Every structure is written in structure tokens, then in C-alpha cells.
Amino acid sequence: MKSFLIGASLILFSLAAQASENGAVCLDLDLDIPESEAKPVVKVAPILSKGNSKHLPTCIVVSFVLVAKPGSQGKALIPGNLKIEGSTDKAWKEPVKAAVSKWLYLSRGIEYRGRQYIIYRIPALTS
User: How many Å apart are CA 33 and CA 14, to the nearest integer?
Assistant: First the structure.
């Protein structure tokens, strides 16, 4: 089934214990991007297996294109062609792709031109 390419999106996951740590955690990633106004109506958070708190904080950049959700007559958009663009910890790659693949956007009000960026934060676990 063909999906219509509606726009390109780049989602930035900045998984940091504190906003001030963001730069230190993400030094190797290009984070000079504006944050998008488009927000998913369904947003699933990435989860690692238990005992993996050693992988926090971290940064992951995932990109995707928004495509029409089958059967929605173009009213709903889902991420397609997911790709990890950069990561400070490879343990997050698959959990992030799995989570983002479940996100849902409503097509009304989405800016289709250019890329969209979202900063997503998960704090480090504390004892």
C-alpha cells in the first residue's frame, strides 16, 4: 500500500537528568535545531529493560517522515522510514525506534514544509 509523503520530521531525543546537563551529554551530536510546534496526540516513551539505568542520561536523534495512517483518509499521520541519525548510547536505538513508530499525529495544523524537531527528556534514575 502506498503512503503519501507529507513531510519530513526530525525528532530530537535529549534524554538528560537535568536540562543543564543537556549540552554535556549531547556534545557529539548536532543540536542546533529549532523546536517544532507540531506535537503528537499519542506519544509513547522509549523504555529500556530493568537494570539499565546506567544508560541515562543520553541523547538520541531519530528522523522520520510523516505518512498518512492507513484507513484514516489522511486525517492521521504516523512516522515512517525511521532512522537513527545520532546516539550517545546505542542501547537506546531500538527502544526509541519502537516508541516513535507508535506515535500518532493529527494532520490538521501540522506544518508540512521543512523538518520538525522535538526535544524529549527523560531524567536519570535516582536511588
Answer: 12
Helix (H, G, I), strand (E, B) or coil at 5: strand
Residue with grid cell 520530521, as numbered in its chain:
9
Strands 5-15 and 119-120: parallel
| pLDDT in the model for residue 12 | 39
- The closest alpha carbon to 45, from 123, 109, 116, belongs to 123
Residues comprising the chain, all counted: 127
How many structural domains does the chain have?
1
Q: Is 125 inside a domain boundary?
A: no
Considering the chain, what percentage of its residues have pLDDT values greater than 70?
52
Cell 550517545 locates to: 88
